[in-house]
Design brief:
globular; 5-stranded antiparallel sheet; 7 helices; 5-stranded parallel sheet; Rossmann fold; 2 domains; 295 residues; 17 strands; alpha/beta; OB fold (Dihydrolipoamide Acetyltransferase, E2P)
Length: 295
Amino acid sequence: MSLRVLIVDDEKPARQRLEDLVDAYEKAERIGSAATGHEAVEAIQKKDPDVVLLDIQMPGLNGLDVVQKIGPRAMPVTIFVTAYDQHALEAFDVAALDYLLKPFEDERFKAAMDRAYRQVHLETVERLRGRLVDLLEEVETGPDADAAPAGTEASGSSSQPSSEPSVENGRGGPVERSDPEDGYLQRIPVRKAKEVRVIAVETVTYFEAEGPYVELHTDDGGRHLIRERMKTLEAQLDPANFCRIHRSTIVNLNFVDAVQPNYEDRYVVVLSTGERLDVSRRRRERFENRFGLSF
């Protein structure tokens, strides 16, 4: 699956660089470019791109105005491009997947596109899965379906509340505290095909927000999805072992191998798995306190 990408930037050199980067990204197809906000609105409505690389600071109709015109819920996956960090923070208030702060490196662009690819792929899979679930439920609850036993739901689950974590619509459902002794989450159920796998929290290297889902990255290279809000999940994780380093990332401190200073007084966390994660400026001080950092 190739991403259909629309580029929006009022500066020709910046637009040309984005075009070159998109053309070099093997999982993307450039379907057009726009130099104004009005052109962007028209192109989004006509071409229905998967991803929009959207400059924020444009004369007339700026990037945030474009989102309002289309509507946040109707916007494709959006990566804002900006030279002003305060605009980048505002961008997240309108649900941008990521932002590129000019000037950015090629690797930073690739990382943003990789996130976009995963997001578009997950949304596509989830739509298809939802259709299958609806179809199966329609068949199971049809006129020939067996009646549910008294005191139970049609699915066969008990009507009594359960303290076990739930599973919802083919994904791990909202996680609940499963280990009351210390009050912190220890295991997370994840549905895989026809079974439910139980993932030990201690094996999760980091959690990454993916739209309405959270993706669990485990130390064996596995990836698993649950439907949960990052804020809710963060509250259930042991703060001695987990730290939120970005709006979309919670890292397991036990897998942190190194911390490197990055651009503009930020850090990059290097995991023992080789993965590299950005520490956002807003969460830098808390992260410094946890590690006693002083660069």
